[in-house]
Design a protein that fits this description.
The structure holds 2 protein chains of 2 kinds.
Chain A: E1 14-23, H1 31-53, E2 57-67, E3 69-79, H2 96-106, E4 120-125, H3 133-142, H4 144-148, E5 150-156, H5 162-169, E6 177-179, H6 182-193, H7 195-201, E7 206-207
Parallel strand pairs in A: 1-2, 1-4, 4-5, 5-6
Antiparallel strand pairs in A: 2-3
Chain B: E1 10-17, H1 20-25, E2 31-36, E3 46-52, H2 62-87, H3 94-128, H4 142-148, E4 153-158, E5 162-168, E6 172-176, E7 182-183, E8 196-197, E9 215-217, E10 220-226, E11 234-238, H5 240-243, H6 249-253, H7 255-266, H8 268-285, E12 291-298, H9 306-327, E13 335-336
Helix pairs in contact in B: 2-3, 7-8
Classes of the chains: A alpha/beta, B alpha+beta.
Chain lengths: ~240, ~350
C-alpha cells in the first residue's frame, strides 16, 4: 500500500465559547458573591472533565462582570484546562445592558467563525437592570451567534427580575433558574458548566423551520432545587 | 467529455466513515453515498449523491432518511438525464430545458423523498400494531413524521455537455479546475450556522425561481451549467463533518488542489487505498462527525496507466455488488455505502 499525505490544510476541533456574565452590583455583596465565586471555582474540575470527554470541541472560557459599567473579568478566550477564576467583588449598580454590548461585540464574525459550536452564555443576576438593557439585548440577538447561543440565566435570590432573565433566554422551553440559597446556586452553576457544556459540545443537527424547533441545543433538565433547611437559609 | 474506447469519461467514487464521536457514543453513521456511471448503470451520464441524516432525538430514523435521499436523487437524476437528452428539439432548446430542470427537479426530489418516507412509515405502522416500538407514530403530523427521517442531500449530474449541481442543507460541493483553482457552485447559506441545517423534512414545495441565477425551490439550491470551455477536472462532494474538521475555509478548500495533484501523480487506485484512513484521521483530529466524500474525476487527468489499474479495481468491486444484487434486486443499479447495522450492546 502506498501511503500518501492527507489532503487539505490544518485541522482543528471546533471552538465552543463559554461565557459567564456575572452581576457584581452592591446587592450581591456578602454571601451571594462569595457563593458565586466558590461555585465557579468548584465547577472548574468538572468542566475540565467534560471537555476531556468531548475532545472534538475546544472549550474556551471567558467572563464578563457588570455593576456600574461592565468589563471583561477574563477577556481572553482561555482553554478550560488553563482557566483560572479570579474572585469577583461586589459594588455599584446593575448595568446589564453594557454587559450585553460587550458580549455582542465578541459574537460578531469576526472574531467568531462560521465553524464554531453554539456558544454558551450564563447570566447571573440578583436584581433589576439600571441601564437600557433592551437595545443591548436586541443588539446581542441580532448577531447570528447571539441568536444561536445557548442562553441560560440564574436568579440569585428572590429579588431578581425574572422577566428580564426570561427575555435573555428567549425561549419558552427554558425558564430562569432561581437560586434561593448557596447550595442551590452551586448546584445550578455545576449544571450549567457540566451538563449544558456536554450538550453543547456535540449538538446534533437541527432542521431550520422545524415545527418542533425550540432550543438550538437539546438540554438536560436542570437539577431539582434543594429545599432550604430553615428560613435563615434563604437569601 | 466523450468516453474513449475502453476508458470512461469520468470516474466516480466515494467513501463514508463513522464519526469518531459516534464511535465513542455507539451511535450509527448518519451519512449515505451513492453513484451511477455511464459505463455501468446510467447510459448518458454520471451521478453522485451524498446525504447527511440529522441524528437528533427528533430524527431517530435519519440514517434511513439519508439513504432514501441518495436513492431518490440517483433515480431522479437518471430520469432527468434521459429526459434532457430526449427533450432537446428545435422548439425546445437547451436553454428552455435548463429552466425546466431547475424548476421541476427540486420539487420532484422533495416529493419523492416524502413519498419514500411515507411508504416506510406505513410499513412501520403495520408492524407497530403488534409491538410498542413505534408508539405515537400515527399521531404525528406529516411534517413531524418527515422530521423523523430528516436529512440533507447534495448531488451532481454530469454529461458531456452540462453539469447540474443540487444541494439542500449543509455540506460542500467544490469544483477544481485543471490548474487547481477551487470554486463553489453555491455560496454558503448564512442560515447554516452551528448545528442548524435546512432539511428535506422541513422544505416546502413553494417555488421561487430567479432567472439567470441558481434557482430555489424553497431551500433547494440548483445550478445547471453548460460546459463552455473545459469542464472541471475534479468535483468533490462532502458532508459537513469534513469541512468542520479544518481550521478554516482556506484549509478545507486546500483539499481541492491536493486531491488533484495526487490523482495526477499516483492515480485513483492509490487514493482508494488511503481515503478511508484519511477520513478517519480527519474525524478523530477535527469534528468527530461522520464524514463522507464523493469524487468525480475527469479521466484524462489521471496517469495513462490508470485505465488498466482502475478497471481491475472496478472488476474487484463487482463481486460485492453482485452479492448485494442477489439480496436486493433494485440495488443492482445503485451502490450505496452505508455501514452495516451496528449492534449496540
Amino acid at each position: 500500500m502506498v501511503t500518501l499525505r492527507r489532503p487539505g490544510g490544518e485541522m482543528a476541533t471546533r471552538p465552543l465559547h463559554f461565557i459567564w456574565i456575572a452581576d457584581c452590583s452592591g446587592s450581591m455583596a456578602g454571601e451571594k458573591i462569595k457563593t458565586l465565586n466558590f461555585g465557579i471555582q468548584e465547577a472548574l474540575p468538572e468542566m475540565r472533565r467534560v471537555a476531556d470527554d468531548n475532545p472534538f470541541a475546544e472549550v474556551l472560557v471567558r467572563a464578563v462582570k457588570f455593576s456600574s459599567g461592565a468589563q471583561w473579568h477574563v477577556g481572553q478566550p482561555t482553554k478550560v484546562q488553563d482557566f483560572k477564576w479570579p474572585d469577583l467583588q461586589a459594588n455599584g449598580v446593575t448595568d446589564l445592558g453594557r454587559a450585553f454590548r460587550l458580549v455582542a461585540d465578541q459574537l460578531k464574525m469576526p472574531p467568531m467563525t462560521d465553524r464554531a459550536l453554539p456558544p454558551v452564555l450564563v447570566l447571573f443576576s440578583d436584581g433589576q437592570p439600571t441601564d437600557d438593557y433592551k437595545s443591548s439585548l436586541k443588539a446581542l440577538m441580532d448577531e447570528p451567534w447571539g441568536k444561536k447561543a445557548v442562553r441560560l440565566s440564574i436568579a440569585v435570590g428572590d429579588d431578581a427580575d425574572l422577566a428580564v432573565l426570561q427575555e435573555f433566554i428567549g425561549h419558552s422551553e427554558l425558564q430562569p433558574l432561581v437560586a434561593k440559597n448557596a447550595p442551590q446556586l452551586v448546584d445550578y452553576i455545576k449544571w450549567a458548566s457540566t451538563a449544558v457544556l456536554q450538550a453543547a459540545s456535540a449538538p446534533p443537527s437541527q432542521a431550520t423551520d422545524s415545527p418542533q424547533s425550540g432550543l438550538n441545543v437539546p438540554l438536560p433538565p436542570p437539577p431539582v432545587a434543594t429545599a432550604p433547611s430553615s428560613a435563615d437559609d434563604v437569601w | 467529455m466523450q468516453a474513449q474506447e475502453n476508458k470512461p469519461g469520468w470516474y466516480v467514487w466515494g467513501v463514508t466513515v463513522m464519526g469518531a464521536s459516534h464511535q465513542r457514543a455507539g451511535t450509527k453513521n448518519q451519512d449515505a453515498i451513492g453513484w451511477k456511471t455511464q459505463e455501468k448503470d446510467c447510459p448518458d451520464g454520471y451521478i453522485l449523491a451524498v446525504a447527511d441524516g440529522h441524528g437528533s432525538p427528533r430524527s431517530p430514523r435519519s440514517a434511513d432518511g439519508s439513504r432514501f435521499a441518495v436513492q431518490v436523487l440517483l433515480e431522479l437524476a437518471h430520469d432527468y438525464i434521459k429526459e434532457v437528452k430526449e427533450g432537446i428539439t428545435l422548439v425546445n432548446p437547451f436553454s428552455l430545458v435548463k429552466q425546466q430542470v431547475e424548476q421541476k427537479l427540486p420539487q420532484d426530489l422533495i416529493r419523492l423523498w416524502q413519498e419514500r418516507v411515507e411508504q416506510d412509515l406505513s410499513q412501520l405502522t403495520v408492524k407497530s400494531q403488534s409491538t410498542s416500538l413505534e408508539d405515537g407514530l400515527e399521531q404525528n403530523s406529516p411534517q413531524a413524521n418527515y422530521l423523523l427521517y430528516g436529512s440533507t442531500i447534495l448531488g451532481v449530474m454530469l454529461t458531456s455537455h452540462y453539469v447540474v449541481y443540487i444541494q439542500l442543507g449543509d455540506g460542500d460541493i467544490l469544483t477544481v479546475s485543471e490548474r487547481g483553482e477551487v470554486s463553489r457552485p453555491f455560496l454558503r447559506d448564512p442560515r447554516l450556522l452551528a448545528n442548524q441545517t435546512t432539511s428535506l423534512a422541513t422544505t416546502s414545495l413553494t417555488l421561487n425561481t430567479l432567472s439567470g441565477s441558481p434557482s430555489y425551490a424553497s431551500d433547494v439550491y440548483i445550478k445547471f451549467e453548460f460546459f463552455q470551455n473545459d469542464p472541471p477536472a475534479l468535483i468533490l462532494v462532502s458532508t459537513d463533518g469534513y469541512s468542520n474538521s479544518y481550521r478554516d475555509n482556506k484549509a478545507f478548500e486546500q483539499i481541492g488542489p491536493d486531491y488533484l495533484k495526487l490523482l495526477k501523480a499516483v492515480g485513483l487506485a492509490a487514493i482508494k487505498e488511503n481515503l478511508e484512513g484519511w477520513l478517519n484521521e480527519t474525524s478523530q483530529t477535527g469534528s468527530g462527525d461522520d464524514i463522507t466524500l464523493g469524487l468525480m474525476i475527469r479521466a484524462d487527468i489521471l496517469p495513462a496507466s490508470e485505465g488498466e489499474a482502475t478497471a481491475i479495481m472496478i472488476a474487484n468491486e463487482v463481486e460485492p455488488e453482485k452479492a448485494l444484487a442477489q439480496s436486493e434486486p433494485t440495488a443492482q443499479e445503485v451502490l450505496i455505502q452505508t455501514p452495516p447495522e451496528e449492534t449496540v450492546e
